Amino acid sequence: MWRVRLAVSSVAAVIGAGLLSSVQTTVPSAWPWVGSGALLATAVAAVLLLPPWWFRLHRWEVTGTAVYVRAGYLRREWGITATSHVQTVDIRRGPLEQRLGLATVLVTTASAKGELKLHGLDATTAAELAERLLILAHATPGDAT
User: Fold this and answer.
1) In terms of CB atoms within 10 Å, which end of the chain has fewer, N or C?
2) Is the pTM of this model over 0.85?
3) Is 145 within the bounds of a domain?
4) Which of these, 102, 105, 97, lies nearest to 130 by C-alpha position?
5) How distant is the alpha carbon of residue 36 from its chain centre?
6) In which order are the strands placed within the sheet that holds 77-82?
C-alpha cells in the first residue's frame, strides 16, 4: 500500500514538475529534462527503499491486557492502551485498501490522545483482530474510562 501511494504521488510530482518547467522556459533547454530526470531517479529510489524501512518501523501487538502500536519514521511513537479502556473498534477500508485487500483497524479509547491505528492489515486479519479486541474488552473488568 505504501509503495503504491508513493509511486502514484511520485509520478504526479514528476509530470507536474516536467510540465511546469517546460511552460516556464521560453528558450528551449535541456535543464527542465535534467531536473525531471533527477526527480524521477529520486522517486524510483524512494519507491524501492522507503516502504521496507517503514515496514520495519511499524509494529503492533494485542495481549490479554493491552494493545500496543509503534509507528513513526523520524519521531517514533508508542501507543499503549489497556483493553479495559477500549471503547470502540472500527475497521476502515479506503479505495486503495479495498483494491489491495487490506484494512485499517481503529481502536478508540477514553484517552484525549484519540485512537490507535493499525494500518495495512489483511482484511481477514483485521476482522479477526477486531472481533478479538471486542471480546477482550468485554471480558476485562473496568469502566472503559
Assistant:
1) C
2) no
3) no
4) 105
5) 27
6) 59-62, 66-71, 77-82
- 3-class secondary structure per residue, 23-41: HHCCCCCCHHHHHHHHHHH
Q: Which long-range contacts (CB under 8 A, 24 or more apart) does 45-49 make?
A: 46/6, 46/10, 47/3, 47/6, 47/7, 47/10
Q: Give me 16's grid cell.
A: 507536474
Q: Which of 15, 37, 56 is the last residue of a domain?
A: 56
How far, in Å, CA of 135 to CA of 132, rounded? 5
> Does 89 share its domain with 52?
no
pLDDT digits (tens, 9 = 90+) for 40-61: 899 899 889 888 887 788 888 9
CATH number of the domain to which 66 belongs: 2.30.29.30
Domain that holds residue 100: 58-139
Q: Which helix (H) or strand (E) holds 46?
A: helix 31-57
